[in-house]
Amino acid sequence: MTPGLGPGDRAPELVLPDQHDDPVRLSELVADRHALLVFFPFAFSPICTGELLEIQLNIDEFVNDRVQVVGVSCDPRHALRAWAASEGYRFPLLSDFWPHGAASRAYGVFDEDSGMAIRGTFLVDPTMTVRWSLVNPRGEQRPIGLLHEAVRSI
Fold first, then answer.
1. Helices 46-57 and 144-152 meet at what angle, rounded to 10?
2. Is 48 one of the annotated active-site residues of the chain?
3. How many domains does the chain have?
4. Residue 10: inside a domain
5. Would 6 be classed as within a structural domain?
6. Structural domain range at position 51
7. Predicted model pTM
8. Fewest C-beta in 10 Å: which of 44, 82, 85, 91?
9. For the stretch 89-117, what's the b/e string if a residue is b when 16 or more beta carbons lie within 10 angstroms of its beta carbon?
């Protein structure tokens, strides 16, 4: 695994299907706002569900005219669609399923041994520059307060 991207790095372009099989292009998403990319290991897992539910509970801070939250995992889109429907997520969940983990690798958060993304979070601005990042070790939950601070800093 290569180290995750840091502030000032150019954000790699992403073009991935969301849970409804609609293609999402990062450069189009950030044309007029920032994106908070939230890479996570697996839909329906306890830590991932807790993290994304916490983001959902604070959605008005994270999804507005300045920021759009986007979840990314190596799960197939069908699993992401079922999970989003089950939990009521109101933000896109992108499938990095095929080619397996290509986006996660580009952001330096793909775990080759397990075949999953680790918990990497990247705030990308309209110039496709990473403004803030956090990569948590496997099994360690993201502190939601740090995401709040990052979003407030823009």
1. 40
2. yes
3. 1
4. no
5. no
6. 15-152
7. 0.94
8. 85
9. bebbbbbbbeeebebbbbbbbbeeeeebb
